[in-house]
Write a structure and sequence with these properties.
This protein is mainly α and 451 residues long. Helices cover 84% and strands 0% of the residues.
Length: 451
């Protein structure tokens, strides 16, 4: 096993076509692992000092905020990741900056309007959607931070488009680090029951402001007075972004339906148990995000310069790296999940072990499939991916409605597992039919072609 892993690493590092992605991914992976560690420490502090109910309230507030910002970002978080490297490759840094600036203004304006509307509608959301009127204060407070969360998401993707890996790594660290610092300070100085929510919202605000400053500096550093600028109107940006908005919203529903519907049908404590299991299962997400940090803009560059063989070579190598780095994490969670839940979060959280196993199985399919979503969006197949995600979201919602009222967190986990596996498998099938090749990787079954 060890020798096979070492052989795989040597092959990846000696591959010149993949070396850029590998080098950047390792750096981003280390930073992302640190960010996950900070986030897990924050979750442990919340579970130990504030309880499962506080964990559940924070999960619902985050889901509420994530849902709003999906629509306020308008899908531009993904389209800007494609447009920046495309404009730099074909035109100039200044051209890419003009696209980014227009997008930033649109997102800021929509966020302010939407945040104001949801501020006044917070009572309706708490009462009619979640049947928990006492949460209206938290939803109103979160609505005031919609603009910060939206700009934070946009800037994170724009940094990736510029391939500023160290900067992106810092921006990935900042939200979880800022939350942990504020949470610990609040816990030591004044242990208010709302500290977890306050800390999370403060972290979003800090990251948004720092990110805006970083982006301005990074773009202006590479701009030249003789740069060629290709104008791109706002309607053109939005026409590309809207299918990606639908994909992002459907991805949200597949990943957050469990939290939302548990909040509607069950107690805050159950939401807290599910939230912890979900976050543990999603430990593999930092690997995917780290590799996609480099892979996504590379997909766009290779596809738009018609280098199809190199595109699939890089995509398959990315999938192989994703599998071998996530499989040990998932195996550990399945084998040691029960003692880990009890040790770090408390004996009450052991009830979420079966939930954790089902969510881990879904993540295994996700890792086998590779960067399916980014591959579709970066190669101009965002409409097809939108349709796949829509069908997957419907499956998740239907299963959740049927299972959560009766089976609680285990019903939510089963629905999430089926949904996550289905859209990855459907996307792999689509890529195979469209291109005659696949980007997935399973040891002993699918082998990367020698290059």
């Amino acid at each position: 096993m060890v020798r096979a892993f070492e052989k795989m690493v040597r092959r990846l590092t000696s591959d010149r076509k993949f070396s850029e992605i590998l080098t950047g991914s390792i750096f981003a992976m280390v930073a992302r692992a640190a960010a996950v560690a900070f986030a897990m420490l924050a979750n442990i502090v919340i579970a130990r000092f504030y309880g499962a109910q506080a964990m559940g309230i924070l999960a619902m507030v985050n889901s509420f905020l994530f849902l709003i910002t999906i629509f306020t970002v308008l899908g531009t978080g993904t389209s800007i990741l494609r447009l920046i490297p495309e404009h730099i490759a074909r035109h100039s840094v200044t051209s890419a900056f003009r696209v980014y600036r227009k997008t930033q203004y649109v997102v800021a304006a929509v966020s302010v309007v939407s945040g104001t509307a949801f501020f006044f509608a917070s009572g309706i959301v708490a009462d009619k959607v979640f049947s928990k009127p006492h949460l209206s204060f938290f939803f109103a407070l979160a609505a005031g931070f919609v603009a910060f969360k939206s700009l934070m998401d946009l800037n994170s993707q724009a940094v990736r488009g510029l391939r500023l890996i160290r900067t992106f790594a810092f921006m990935q660290l900042l939200p979880s680090l800022a939350m942990l610092v504020v949470l610990i300070a609040g816990t030591l100085l004044f242990r208010h029951p709302n500290n977890p929510v306050y800390s999370q919202l403060a972290a979003y605000a800090v990251t948004a402001m720092v990110g805006a400053l970083i982006m301005d500096h990074a773009f202006k550093k590479g701009m030249r007075t003789d740069d060629v600028v290709k104008p791109l109107a706002v309607p053109e940006i939005l026409s590309m972004s809207m299918p990606m908005l639908m994909s992002a919203s459907m991805y949200f529903f597949t990943s957050q339906t469990g939290v939302i519907m548990l909040g509607m049908f069950r107690t805050e404590s159950e939401v807290g148990y599910y939230s912890v299991a979900s976050k543990l299962a999603n430990l593999t997400a930092f690997v995917l995000q780290a590799i996609n940090t480099m892979a996504a803009p590379k997909f766009s560059e290779l596809y738009h310069t018609d280098k199809m063989d190199e595109l699939f070579h890089v995509a398959r190598k990315s999938s192989k790296l994703i599998f071998w780095t996530t499989a040990p994490i998932l195996i550990t969670l399945v084998l040691l999940g029960r003692p880990l839940l009890g040790l770090f979060f408390g004996g009450d959280f052991i009830v979420a072990y079966v939930t954790l196993i089902m969510l881990a199985i879904g993540q295994l399919v996700n890792s086998i499939s590779g960067s399916t979503g980014y591959f579709m969006n970066m190669t101009g197949h965002q409409n097809a991916f939108r349709n796949i995600m829509f069908c997957s979201a419907l499956i998740n919602i239907a299963l959740s409605l049927a299972l959560i009222p009766r089976f609680g967190i285990n019903g939510a986990a089963f629905a999430g597992m089926v949904s996550l596996a289905s859209w990855n498998i459907y996307t792999l099938i689509y890529i195979r039919i469209k291109f005659g090749r696949t980007i997935g990787y399973v040891p002993l079954f699918w082998r990367s072609p020698a290059k």
